[in-house]
Amino acid sequence: MKITGTLIKNFLHCPRQAYLYYYGLNFRSEVVKIGELMHKEQKAKEYIFENVKVDDIKDGYLIEYKKSSSNLEGTKFQTLYYLDYFKSRGVILKGLIKDLTYKQEYVLELNDKVKKELDEMIKRLSLMLQGELPNRLKLKKECKGCSFFDYCWIE
Fold this sequence. Notes:
The protein has helices spanning 5-13, 15-22, 30-41, 72-87, 112-129, 149-153, and strands spanning 47-49, 52-54, 56-58, 61-66, 94-99, 104-108. Strand 3 (56-58) and strand 4 form a beta hairpin. Helices cover 44% and strands 17% of the residues. It contains 6 helices and 6 strands; from the N terminus they run H-H-H-E-E-E-E-H-E-E-H-H.
């Protein structure tokens, strides 16, 4: 089972979205396209290592650019997953999430407590992926901007 940072971020946003993404069903909404354009404007280097793709690494920070912090918890764990990947290879970095809409920055560090939370969350994600497609959750404001909105909510 191949876990990725994007899969982790999606799981914390919506398990159904993560499941569909994992099994290859992917849509790109207008909101996603806007986020991609904003991301390109940052002129990030974008580094790819095995199944890890990070936006930038500068001055001891692994940087993730996001359109907004609407899924901040998911983005935090995505970034922590990347920090753990690098730490396991002997490279110690801090994480920096940059919210491009609200001009917010969030600094993260991987410690024992956070590593334990990350491992537990990955365990839950792996179990979910081995089961059936999760039911859609209650319709929330965030659902309207989701790439899977039509799949989940239009009947």
